[in-house]
Write a structure and sequence with these properties.
single chain; 108 residues; mainly alpha; 5 helices; rod-shaped; JIP3/JIP4; RH1; coiled coil; MAP-kinase scaffold activity
Length: 108
């Protein structure tokens, strides 16, 4: 169970149907939505805050805020994934550049 699912299921509010997590799960393609560790940690902290708000006030206090937070967490997680992909691409391009420079130096 990922952090956003944990937040929503533990609060009794349920997963918003338009969340990325729900879209991935409904396609049934076997992809498990695994969140970045930093995002999971942040989601856990947010859950603790929501839990204390729910205990102090009621579930209605966080009901409309919950889907927004989930979407923000999903976007943040996607950004981390994209950064990792760009870092890999950058390393490959650096290696290609190094090889091209070496070839150029040999031919000169």
């Amino acid at each position: 169970m990922n952090a956003e699912e944990y937040i929503l299921s533990s609060s009794g509010l349920g997963l918003p149907e338009d969340s990325e997590y729900m879209r991935e799960q409904s396609h049934g393609n076997g992809n498990q939505a695994v969140m970045n560790e930093k995002v999971q940690s942040l989601a856990g902290s947010i859950y603790e805050e929501f839990e204390s708000m729910i205990l102090r006030y009621d579930t209605d206090v966080v009901k409309s805020l919950m889907p927004l937070i989930v979407n923000v967490l999903e976007s943040l997680d996607l950004s981390y994934t994209e950064i990792q992909e760009y870092e890999v691409e950058l390393e490959l391009l650096k290696e290609d550049n190094e090889q091209l420079v070496t070839q150029y130096e040999r031919k000169r």
